[in-house]
Design a protein that fits this description.
199 residues, alpha+beta, OB fold (Dihydrolipoamide Acetyltransferase, E2P), DNA polymerase, domain 1, Helicase, Ruva Protein, domain 3, 3 domains, five-stranded mixed barrel, 20% strand, globular, ATP binding, RuvA_C_sf, hydrolase, DNA_helicase_Holl-junc_RuvA_I, Hlx-hairpin-Hlx_DNA-bd_motif
């Protein structure tokens, strides 16, 4: 998973921004409140989630890791996909959304377009006991940074169509060649370059 991006904002649209990372412009879909904080030509850093579908790779961005975790948690409920989860975060701040789920507040949840009374009740039943775990401490990775980057880049390469073996070999090659101190985006760029040379 690509868990964050940092780079220059190339453009800001109605529902996404394009952030340049290592010479590549990444379209990051996000909510209006987050888009309002971005300025063309300035550097931005967003917590992200890459959603892989048969016909698309879509990157979703968030102001912080808690919002990203809530985005993923919402999608564990049947009938809630990335668009509806993003819509929920667009209408309700993460704190307000967690509070509504914990308190069983159907009225607040139905303010989100696409969530009716039954949908709100299902969200409450399935997530009421889980939202309490959304604290800053849960966002700290247990694995060492190098291991985390390795797994994130391997997953990203697999999402781009490379086999698991190709992805693992490319990442290991970069790490063995002095890339242990690289951050995740830099490691991904080097691994992609390695795979490009092999083609």
């Amino acid at each position: 998973m690509i868990s964050s991006v940092r780079g220059t904002v190339l453009s800001v649209g109605l529902d996404h921004a394009v952030v340049e990372v290592g010479g590549v412009g990444l379209a990051v879909h996000t909510i209006p409140a987050t888009l309002a904080t971005l300025r063309r030509g300035e550097e931005a850093q967003l917590a992200t989630t890459l959603v892989v579908r048969e016909d698309s790779l879509t990157l979703y961005g968030f102001a912080d890791a808690d919002a990203r975790m809530l985005f993923g948690l919402l999608q564990t409920v049947s009938g809630v996909g990335p668009r509806l989860a993003l819509s929920a975060l667009a209408v309700l701040e993460p704190d307000a959304l967690c509070r509504a789920l914990a308190d069983g507040n159907v009225t607040t949840l139905t303010q989100v377009p696409g969530i009716g009374r039954k949908g709100a009740e299902r969200l409450i039943i399935e997530l009421r006991d889980k939202v309490g775990s959304l604290t800053p401490a849960t966002t700290v990775a247990a694995a060492p940074a190098a291991d985390q980057s390795r797994s994130q880049v391997t997953e990203a390469l697999a999402g781009l169509g490379f086999t698991a073996k190709q992805a693992e070999q490319a990442v290991e090659s970069v790490l063995a060649d002095g890339g242990a101190d690289l951050d995740t985006p830099a490691l991904l760029r080097k691994a992609l370059a390695t795979l490009g040379r092999k083609r």
